[in-house]
Amino acid sequence: MLKRRRAYLLAIVAAAVLIFPWGVIQPRALDDLRNFVFDTFQRLAPRAYDPEAPTRVVGVDEKSLSAYGQWPWPRARLAELLDRLRELGAASIAFDFIFAEADRAGASQLIEAIPDPRARAEVAKLVAKAPSGDQILAQALSKAPATLGVTLTDAVSAPLPAKSGLVTTGDDPAPFLAAFAGAVGPARKLAEAARGLGATNWLPDHDQIVRRVPLVTRAGDVLMPSLALEALRVAQGEPAIIIRSSNASGQTAFGKQTGVNAIKVGAFEIATGPNAEVRPRYSHSDAVRDISAKDVLEGRVARDEIEGRIIFVGALATGLGDVRATPLEPVVPGVDVHAQIVESIASGSLLARPDWAPGLEFVVAAFAFLLIMSLLFVAPPLVSAAAAPLAVAGLFAGAFYLFDRRGLLLDPSYPSLAIIGGYLFGAVTLWRSETSARRHVRQAFGKFVSPAVVDRLAEHPERLVLGGETRELTVLFSDLRNFSGISEGMSARELTQFMNEYLTPMTDAILEKEGTIDKYMGDAVLAFWNAPLDIDDHPRKAVQAALTMREALASLNKRRAAAAASSGNDAQPAAMGLGLNLGPCSVGNMGSIRRFDYSILGDTVNLASRLEGASKAFQTDIVASGAVHDAAPDFSWLDLGRVRVVGKSEPTRVFALAGDREMAVSDSYVRWRKSHDLMRQEYESGRFEAAAEGASALARSVPEPWPALYVVLEQRYRGLAREGSQDNWSSVWNLSSK
């Protein structure tokens, strides 16, 4: 019973170690799962569209294009559309278009298209005194409560004329806002005539679905309201928008800067996320919301459809390409999304994910995990088996209730994962505990002491006692890559023959350099040097053994390829990963009085295994720690920098073994290492593009199989270059797999 409790306690700890860091780290996979749940909630309970909503969309649709020609229309026609909407009593008119260039459909452009110079001159005289399309539109804008669209870009540009006062209270919100270098706005005369300018940009998630919408962004040092927010301001005749950040009056954050809390525009105080973003609760597309521009121009729209409303003018024709994806629909006109933002604000239907939500979800996950694990241990299997899915169903039902009735986004998926993961860990542990009691007598460890150790222990029988000692050892851990792919299709006899052909030269290479084989683990080999007796210069001998193992594997691949070719088949080449480490280990006879093995334990051994795993990340075969490199510096090493392997909090210097001491003094290697070290200097200095170029050049110049290493490094450097240098950037590579 005590053994069963200990095993179960270990299962609880193991499950907690695997599950709870997700709640702290918040990886992208968890965010994707959470978005899927929240999107499903919206699909189950979308916001019902209210025909009395304060918005309408006047769209350039297929009917309008058929009547008035392809887009862009002459500015005079847009001025006519604007005048019609103003005359119908629109409270605010927002254009989801960027009028950055001069009117391309105006009279002057049409005159330039006349081929006959004399006719062109005569027509030019006739229209010389007529106002341009931009002048006509600017005049219409000056009379209407109009807002024009602005696109923020990463290109530096001149600032746009300010239309609304953006007043900030509390901490500076700028560091928390989505930032751009500049903006592309309407022509200056149009911008000066309009009452508002608003950003049309979207910041969709990586799956291109628009879930969070920033109400305020930043172009350089200039704060820019969104098109929807600016249209709302103009509709109320407000001169300013107030941004309330942390540590403002009534917004205490205990001295910490936590970003934006709320935005006030006229009668509306809008709670936001720290980046000034809101989450609309979408409704399905509705024909009542959308009005054809043709109907407005031809006077076929009732006044009560326009009067007192915020009108968004944009592209509804699919061919114009302004489409977005929302949680409800994969394709909707972008201008409809602007309207839905205002509708959600006006109706109080914005969704909220409070800043305390992740903490609450973590607490719920921990409580549910402990509850299910306790129930699993004390209750009958059927009871615990029913409790887990019922708990998950309850979490989802509660989260959906809060979404539907309160507009709160609380994630039930992470606590559910804690329940499911805990249940699986606990159930498997209890099953193993029950079955192990029946078969522990028949268990065999299947471990053998290497012949070299047997010889030495024969001379020192006092070492055949339980326990051991701490010694500095060089540890080698090797593993065969893609063993499943190589062994696929082999019979049991062929597989045994292959393993013998592989392990025999690997073992010989280790024993010839006075190493000790600790154990074989399938296709993996664990070996060490400097025990039970002292071995002079043992790090150097371990490095030599690793090089011999590399050569032996190459010879094996040649033999297998030749044998396969003679029979008309193909042989998949074998590859290995190998880790070398140097440090203190506990070494001695491990086991019981009746059965024991001479073996090693300790962090040094674990790190050697992790270094073998690191070789996969670097796409090279032999990776050694800095301690091994420093003990045998005259070999051909390539500095790979510092990595933090799984299970280690401190980073480790690692090196790839390129060759032996003879290669180390060759001109080609010296040139190679200089280029490699220069690439590494660029990376350590945060010049990622230069480092990526260096890696790309090396990938094209170094011999096989080394280009793979530089392809990996180039990908990493270019990824860092895309992310941009961060204040807390570290050159340590955190490896996520063993």
UniProtKB/TrEMBL annotation:
Keywords, alphabetical: Membrane, Transmembrane, Transmembrane helix
Organism domain of life: Bacteria
Cross-referenced SMART domains: CHASE2, CYCc
PANTHER family, A to Z: ADENYLATE CYCLASE, TERMINAL-DIFFERENTIATION SPECIFIC, ADENYLATE CYCLASE, TERMINAL-DIFFERENTIATION SPECIFIC-RELATED
UniProt name for this protein: Adenylate/guanylate cyclase domain-containing protein
InterPro entries reported in the protein's UniProt record: A/G_cyclase (IPR001054), Adenylyl/Guanylyl_Cyclase_3/4 (IPR050697), CHASE2 (IPR007890), Nucleotide_cyclase (IPR029787)
Species this protein is from: Methylocystis rosea
CDD domains in the record: CHD
Residue ranges occupied by any Guanylate cyclase domain in the UniProt entry: 474-612
TM spans (from-to): 7-25, 356-378, 385-403, 415-433
SUPFAM superfamilies: Nucleotide cyclase (SSF55073)
